[in-house]
């Protein structure tokens, strides 16, 4: 099980696999069993955004167990959340906001103990 952090410029928290763009994130989602996905929306001028990743999840049905949205784009967050909320299985934790610091710290500690 891995955790994915999608962001084009923020520092990746410890214990997460970093995807700098939508294509990298989709490849990880297709090839790994994903526990937690933290989504950014805007991924660089002219680049596919986080909604591209959401569409991919919906098309493939490969839902991470937990999905958070750390984007600073309110409209982007709303688009991603609405699309996922409509079709996410009931056992998927979908959070319309960023991960709490306590969760980031827990994942960092857990990964450093491996």
Structural notes for this entry:
The protein contains four helices and five strands, in the order E-E-H-E-H-E-H-E-H. It has 114 residues and is of the alpha/beta class. The protein has one domain: Response regulator (Rossmann fold). Helix 2 (50-60) links the parallel strand 3 and strand 4 (66-69). The longest helix has 14 residues, at 74-87. It starts with a strand and ends with a helix. The mean pLDDT is 96.
- DSSP, total strands: 5
- Give the quaternary arrangement of the chains: single chain
CATH topology: Rossmann fold
| Helix content class | 40-55%
Indicate how many domains the architecture comprises: 1
Characteristic key phrases:
single chain; 114 residues; alpha/beta; Rossmann fold; cREC_REC; Cell division protein FtsJ; cell division
């Amino acid at each position: 099980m891995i955790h994915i952090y999608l962001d084009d410029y923020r520092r990746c928290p410890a214990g997460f696999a970093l995807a700098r763009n939508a294509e990298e994130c989709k490849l990880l989602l297709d090839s790994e069993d994903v526990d937690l996905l933290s989504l950014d929306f805007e991924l660089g001028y002219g680049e596919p955004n986080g909604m591209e990743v959401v569409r991919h999840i919906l098309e493939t049905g490969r839902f991470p167990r937990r999905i958070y949205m750390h984007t600073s784009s309110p409209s982007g967050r709303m688009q991603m959340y609405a699309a996922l909320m409509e079709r996410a299985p009931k056992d998927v934790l979908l959070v319309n906001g960023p991960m709490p610091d306590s969760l980031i710290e827990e994942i960092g500690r857990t990964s450093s103990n491996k």
